[in-house]
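Repro case for the chain-ordering regression, as requested:
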Amino acid sequence: MKPEAGAVAISGRRRRYTLLTRRDKILLALMVGIPLALDVILVWGPTLASVLLSFTNWDGIGVPEAKNWVGFKNYQFLFTGYSQFWPAFAHNVIWLLWLTLIATPLGMLFAVLLDREIRGSRIYQSVFYLPVVLSLVVVGFIWELQYYATEGFINNALGLVKSGHLIDWLGDSRLNLYAVLVAASWRHIGYIMILYLAGLKSVDPSLREAARVDGATEVQTFFNVVFPVMAPINVVIVVVTAIEALRAFDIAFIINQGKNGLELLSILITNNSLSEATLVGFGSAIAVVLLLISLVPIVTFLTRVMRTST
Amino acid sequence: MSAVAVATAPTRPVRRPKRVRPARIALHAFLIAMVLVWLFPIGWAVFTSLRSYGDTALHGYFSWPVNGFSLVNYQTMWSQADLGYYYLNTLVVAVPGVVLTLLLASMVAYCCTQYSWKFNLTVLMLFTAGNLLPAQVLIVPLYQIYLHTPIATLGSIDVGKFSFALFSDNTLLYDQYIGLILINVVFQTGFATFVLSNYMKTITKEITESALVDGANVFRIWWSVILPLCRPALAAMATLLFTFIYNDFFWALFLIETGAKRPITTALNNLQGEFFTNNNLIAAGAMLVCIPPILIYVVLQKQFIAGLTLGSTKG
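-- result from build under test --
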């Protein structure tokens, strides 16, 4: 940033500055300043406040004071004493691995299959994308109708209702996370497909042609030619996937409020600190853990944006 | 950039050697199977929603309706669950939400892409990163802010048993439409700024420069030069933002307390406990809630996809 501002005074740049009147500069400051102030007050401020509150035992009543400061005690209890933390952490990791290793590759596969001249490509795309426009609440409701033990479609179709060997897809704590992940993937796959299709369309067709002339098969062409030049979009897709996994909340909340096998970090935060719950400091410590993990994909994304902007 | 978003497949030499045929058939077979898998859950929900409770109670859900289909569950949902009002709640939040988000985001994107100043990249990154944060990271302090920010009360517009407060009816941001609009706007502004700035980078700065030479001020240039040029991107973003806000569950769940003020998506969850006595009603409720976004998607599919892909691919 610095050398650009000082040494390299591009002529066009200088000209532009002289064009701006004092009034223009004030207008510019307002046009950026007002949205920025809102963003700082309602997004970044609360994020930093979460960090500060995580070192307190504040209960949300009155004003936090010096005596509320407890240092790392919340974290200590979180990692060693709070029985729900590690299961929730593990569920978020499973969520991430499932999306990264199963759902996202499937979305990419759909994109690759549809990115060629086949009849009805548009219709296929529209169908796979359809669940993306639905809210996760509706997705949860729709899949409940599949999963219910006696009334749901799956157990009936498998004949388990007749034979009496019911599988409790949503109630069994060993199964329900995966049942929910199937429902979440139904939505995630179409999203990834659309993002990836846009990327594939921007790949120079002559690259593919050259590979074909060299005798590469379609699979070889994809992995050796197309995939590497798609590096920027691959990063976006990994970041989108990671963020989705960390944000996961709605669908688990709909199914059973995030209990009994569906604990997630996001849900522990709200359970401890909102509405009737008063462990504001403790819930904030969980929020900080989630924040620190989220910074990995966020920073990855920003460095990519930076690289392409400069 | 826009070319990427709405591009059709680049023309490639079409060669169909005979030996590819079986592979083609296998591909279509696979895709058709996937399409059936994809549509089935929705189809099953529609099927369930069109059956009367008496029918399913007698024959179970895994059966063909003896007395045909009926819309009785939809009627029940509409008349007894006040669904119409909840749609109104959503509109009251989503329409101003989309407009304000587009105004704020386009201002920031314009200032950051059309003018070079010291921190323009930093500001863009701040907005982008803010939108990537999980909402749960900031909800705890935000909830406290909402509980403790005084807001003027300005009366309300009453529709039936629902009351739409013009500003606030409890002197707080909490449990208010205005509070819900505010957080949706601010959170989505991050995303919209990122997308619109990608779009505006493709507009040459000479347009702004010559307008400045002609004596227009920066505000005027934004409103009457840049915004019209961004119409395709704004249309795409409006479509996308509307469904984002329509589908929002999290903010309304914690920032709205009164049941009657809940937007439709959150209201649906609320009904789960108290109103839904059978799967038929659940199915009808879910279908009613997803009809508007599906309609928007069907009618404005191009805008929808353009909005999403504008954000991910850079020209």
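Ordering looks correct now. The radius of gyration of chain B is 24 Å.
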